[in-house]
Write a structure and sequence with these properties.
The chain is α+β, with helices and mostly antiparallel strands. The protein has ten helices and six strands, in the order αααααβαββαβαββαα.
């Protein structure tokens, strides 16, 4: 079953449902209508509702609907309604439209569509991986994002946990490209979307904070200037006050070795200075 309707404010307004039956095509000459659409798109832009009405004119003629959508695609005013326009298509049309326009046009915050993804293709594998991450980040015992999932034509009902992506790939050997074909309805409710967004933001923050702490510790141990973040205060001066615990913990005997080298350097300089004074004393002309 396909995914119909637009994003709502409720908890599960994106549930998969069968699309309503379409009337026969109202266009007697599809080729002529395509010429009119091309001429109109030269000087005009189209809103979301106008695009949906144009698609409805072609009724059950799926090929004509996809051709018409391809003509007006670059003239749509509000790209935030891309998912709603694709949801206006049947499941098979959604698969063909995504193959034609690419998966980058879909808003990852509203990806509720019907998919048929060949994981041997890089773009489709990357998009399927992103969907699996969204499902894992927002996993809930009361909501399943992957509906009617089939892997190479076989039905599958895996848990949306850390092993989901491995199962969808068919458990390939290390270093080999997966060759499975996954077909499913992806349904993302507003509640799961919020949870997934929060988890993603927390993950990015932890990564950024870890890199920042590493840079500060490294700069403190070496006494250098370092760029710690972008913004008004892009640079901070980090003064070295002795050796920090960074090298003590990470480098083991580096501090002791550096201290020994420093002592040897000082001792050598002192011995050279002492020798110079003794030579001056032995010289009668000094």
């Amino acid at each position: 079953s396909g995914v119909g309707g637009s994003e709502g404010s409720g908890g599960d307004n994106n549930e998969a449902s069968a699309p309503p039956p379409r009337p026969p095509s109202q266009v007697l000459d599809p080729m002529g209508s395509f010429s009119l659409l091309r001429a109109a798109c030269l000087d005009h832009y189209l809103a979301y509702d106008a695009v949906c009405k144009i698609l409805d004119l072609y009724g059950e003629d799926s090929e004509s609907r996809l051709v018409a959508l391809g003509i007006v695609w670059t003239r749509i005013t509000n790209r935030s309604y891309t998912t709603e326009i694709l949801q206006h298509l049947s499941p098979s049309e959604q698969v063909q439209a995504c193959s034609r326009f690419g998966y980058s046009v879909i808003d990852i915050q509203r990806p509720s569509l019907h998919y048929r993804l060949d994981l041997s293709i890089d773009e489709e594998r990357d998009w399927c991986h992103r969907l699996a991450k969204v499902a894992m980040h927002g996993r809930s015992s009361h909501h399943q994002c992957f509906r009617a999932l089939t892997i190479d034509g076989n039905k599958a009902c895996p848990k949306e946990d850390s092993k989901l992506w491995l199962i969808m790939q068919g458990s390939p050997k290390d270093g080999t490209k997966p060759k499975t074909v996954c077909e499913f309805d992806f349904v993302l409710s507003d509640q799961v979307r919020q949870v997934a967004s929060c988890v993603f933001i927390q993950k990015c923050w932890r990564q950024w904070a870890g890199r920042r702490r590493f840079k500060q510790a490294l700069a403190g141990s070496m006494g250098v200037h370092i760029k710690v973040h972008r913004g008004a205060n892009a640079f901070k001066r980090i003064q070295q006050e002795g050796r920090t615990s960074f090298y003590q913990a990470r480098s083991g005997g580096v501090d002791a070795h550096a201290h020994a080298v420093e002592e040897d350097t000082k001792r050598g300089a002192h011995e050279r200075a002492t020798r110079g004074e003794e030579e001056n004393c032995d010289d009668p002309d000094a």
